[in-house]
Amino acid sequence: MTEMTYEERVKLGEQTLSITSAQLRQYQLEKKMITECEACGALDWESPEENAMPSLTATTAVRSPGAGNWFFSMICNNCGHTRLINAGTVWQYFFRKEPGNG
After folding, report:
1. Is 2 inside a domain boundary?
2. What is the pTM of this model?
């Protein structure tokens, strides 16, 4: 795998940030992610939003502080159990159209 240029990383970030709440919901439905909560059995999920866009959580890698991941989340409205959805996987679904992707 080749390392991305700065410009490629910026574009990937901008595209990821452009994913709307409606697109995230479309992805969740397509991938059949709206299932019973593993913790309590409820079927009442919400994906947090900021300014009408899906909220993103960023983590850093302990062994490589310059590296990290972005995640969208789904929160059970009954018990608070949280599922994380890798933003890179969602990005691939919308921006890298390949056979079998979607």
Report:
1. no
2. 0.85
HSE of 26 in the Cβ direction (CA atoms, 13 Å)? 10
Q: Are 82 and 74 in contact (CB under 8 A)?
A: yes
Q: Let me know if residue 38 belongs to a domain.
A: yes
What would the pLDDT profile of 12-55 be if each residue is shown by its tens digit? 999 999 999 999 999 999 999 999 999 999 999 999 999 889 99
- What single string gives the DSSP state of each residue in 32-76? T-----TTT----EE--EETTEE--EEEE-SS-TT-EEEEEEEEE
Residue 87 belongs to a domain: yes
Which of helix, strand or coil describes residue 80?
coil
Question: What is the enclosing helix (H) or strand (E) of 68?
Answer: strand 68-76
- Which domain does 86 fall in, by range? 13-95
Length of the chain: 102
Closest CA to 85 of 101, 69, 99: 69
